[in-house]
């Protein structure tokens, strides 16, 4: 009997040694929710700059004489770099930690926004808005939310994904009306300074409250079991590319990337960039059009969180198909709703589009997690890159279409047709077991 007790004690010692530091008792409110709250605030602060491009197309065109295509190209560079940076940022977070990567990214956003105040040529716009802010915001993209969710949560992942995704819309809700008022009353430069300050204010919160892994606090992830913090992953860039090549050999990756590219084209590339100038073409004041975009942000929060709840309960593929089909139908009606004043049908469109805006994220991330396991954050980063490439293409082509045709109508119709294609693509994604080996392994 004594030998049995001693053997059990030795086994327990060995298990604790393998696990690393022994977990502490779970607090009443799990630390994961604090980390999620800091992540939410960070994404809100980083989203401030995302409200500017649509507001500044007309002021920059008026002051400098730059074409809408040139301004759209700067926004396009921003969106493309945002997307391409995201998967590398996820791997860099594995190597250097979330706090360092995000604090550096916020500083880059602030630097780009401040530098733009003194620009005098369109190439400077492309460097400051396009490159600096694109790299910074890309490092805080949805792959950041995916990394936090994957590390800190086992239960409620869909709900937390929806909440963190809604953070970008919350930033839009806060900053879009404010920046629109600043642009109208004081010019575009004070608005750019405001977004820079918003990014800088968040840095102390990240540095003081964010933790890279539950083991740093001696805790298990929410709803899971304690695991030791893994050693820093070296070769972040190599791993990111390796994961891409492995995922690219699978059909679901291309379907997810294709649907998400259309998602980006029909949201960030089209509505966020060109809705305000398009409404202004029909005589609507910029502040009124910006307020409508802010209302999209209100319902985006509701729709994304509800989508996360649905993703925990229903087939993610069918959810995506419904979201894209309804989005496409709404875009086909938009040209008929444009008017100098806000009419009830336009309000209905705004509410509907807000509910659908990034409702696609929780089911897309769930499918990435289902298909690619531990590498899902990096794979989702590459899928997000396709989202931003789609947004970048439409941000540029939308400006060109306006210069050539004198109207945005053709862009709305084309985007509606693309959404129908995305709905069909969603339905043919094959299912996979919940547990899979990492694709980069």
Automatic annotation (TrEMBL):
Alphabetically ordered keywords of this record: Membrane, Transmembrane, Transmembrane helix
Tagged with keyword Transmembrane helix: yes
Top-rank taxon: Bacteria
Localization (cell): Cell membrane
Main location: membrane
The keyword Transmembrane belongs to this UniProt entry's keyword annotation: yes
One Pfam family per UniProt: MFS_1
Domain Major facilitator superfamily (MFS) profile: 34-434
Membrane topology, from the record: Multi-pass membrane protein
Chain segments annotated as transmembrane: 32-51, 71-92, 101-121, 127-147, 159-184, 190-210, 253-271, 283-309, 321-340, 346-367, 379-398, 410-429
Listed InterPro entries: MFS, MFS_dom, MFS_trans_sf, Proton-linked_MCT
Protein name: MFS transporter
Compositionally biased tracts (Basic residues): 17-26
Stretch list, region Disordered: 1-26
